[in-house]
């Protein structure tokens, strides 16, 4: 006879596999939310993160937060310092320049391929993003613009159809986002950037692989030069400190 669970008896513990899946799911959800906070600017470069604060904020135990920290460190968004804690990474200008060199080559390839293969639906999606970028630029909304900028380039690489390149590109772009946000706050940076993206889309839609590839390569090179002019990142936040103006 199978054992029956009587009302009021002790709760049955979940199978270890189910518990593991739940933990992995919570870690993935925590990772996505922390990444969103970083890329959205709520957790700026240099900010110190604590398991306790994020556990309370996200409503999960510390275990998934700890695993999310590990994954985000592998993704290049966090750094862990022994006896000091976990911090959102600072990207120094020289490191950002190296990443931009790699990104420029991938952007050029994506532009060349998409100029030859872009569908009407893909064009509609990209136009919609550029229009929202222009609206954010007019509103001087750097946070919204930053996320739309990431979305535009992500879609370009996705539509180019090279999955391996897309995976590598996304990791690089997330790291660059830590440096890129500083430049978008400069006067006239948003309107100028929006105009660049409108022109990039025009060259792709014209079906000219050489022009499209060149436009994207030069766009990445110009971004690199802005990073180099911006100088080193601000000093990391000390535990318990806060950034003025945030």
Give the secondary structure arrangement, pairings included:
Layout: H1 16-39, E1 48-49, H2 51-58, H3 62-74, E2 78-81, E3 85-88, H4 93-117, H5 120-138, H6 142-160, H7 163-184, H8 189-205, H9 209-230
Antiparallel strand pairs: 1-3, 2-3
Helix pairs in contact: 1-3, 2-3, 4-6, 4-7, 4-9, 5-6, 5-8, 6-7, 7-9, 8-9
Q: How would you describe this protein?
A:
Residues 1-7, 9-15, 17-21 and 235-246 have low confidence and may be disordered. Helix 4 packs across helix 7, helix 6 (142-160) packs antiparallel against helix 7 and helix 8 runs antiparallel to helix 9 (209-230). It is elongated, with a radius of gyration of 22 Å. The longest helix is centred in the middle third of the chain and has 25 residues, at 93-117. It has nine helices and three strands, in the order H-E-H-H-E-E-H-H-H-H-H-H. Strand 2 and strand 3 (85-88) form a beta hairpin. It is mostly helical and 246 residues long. The N and C termini lie far apart (64 Å). It has helices spanning 16-39, 51-58, 62-74, 93-117, 120-138, 142-160, 163-184, 189-205, 209-230, and strands at residues 48-49, 78-81, 85-88. The chain has two domains: 16-88, Arc Repressor Mutant, subunit A (Orthogonal Bundle); 93-230, Four Helix Bundle (Hemerythrin (Met), subunit A). Strands 1-3-2 form a three-stranded antiparallel β-sheet. 69% of the residues lie in helices and 4% in strands.
